[in-house]
Amino acid sequence: MAPYNVVLLKDELSLSTWLAVGAAVQILFGLVAPARYALLPVALTFSLVGLDIALQYLGLRQSPYLKDAVRDRHSILYRERDGSRPEGLGTKPVAMFLIGVRSNHPLGRLLPKYRKFNDYMDELYADADANRATNGYLGRTPDWLNNEHAQNNTVCSISYWQSLEELEAFARTPMHIKALKFLFSAGMGPKGHELGVIHEVMVCPPGHWEAVYSNINPWGFGTAKFPMLNGRPGLQGPIYERDPKKLNGMWGRMGNKLKQAEVDEKLAAILGPDGLG
User: Domain 75-260: which CATH class?
Assistant: First the structure.
């Protein structure tokens, strides 16, 4: 079983739980430290956090959120299967697969079945990544936690594929069959309700998807990998498109200039002569 992912811990526990943990630490410190130092942990924490915020606000320290960020407005070009530049934006189909799992057990993510299923997911994506040059797998989002419950233990991710057929072929691989059998035996079928599962598949035909990013590190479809040119070994990322004219509007990024021109006229009537700014 893989080790517990402590990165997700900060979002998984509720605010009341974290306050209780902080109070417990403060009480323990007060029991072992002299009275005059009782508030030292709180004071030190607030001082460090406040100093960090002040340095970022004054521009003396870069925001950690901008690490590896692409600092301009851009879209991505979905490369041809040989790795070459496509004719334009949104010219290829893409299949999207969302998978999520939630623990309905009081132990949350500490439930062994839950952690075992997450191990299977890691193995599945490792297998997809190892064979992405031939299986149509393009990449996936990082895991994220939903926050509709006090204990945010619903972990989801979206993967991207060159076609629905290739996604379906991946579903028939031995690794996926093994994970599916475990899921049905562990709580997806009639034998229990300890695991909640989200499974969604969407297919976007050419000209019916778009993406635009600004001041953020590569994420989602922006992290897709494609074959190298001329059959060379290795993989390469998507091509960034920065031309403002091509990035104009949702329909424009889908390659439909006529529809975008129609939308622009409607938007101009609403915004007036000042436009967006």
Answer: alpha beta
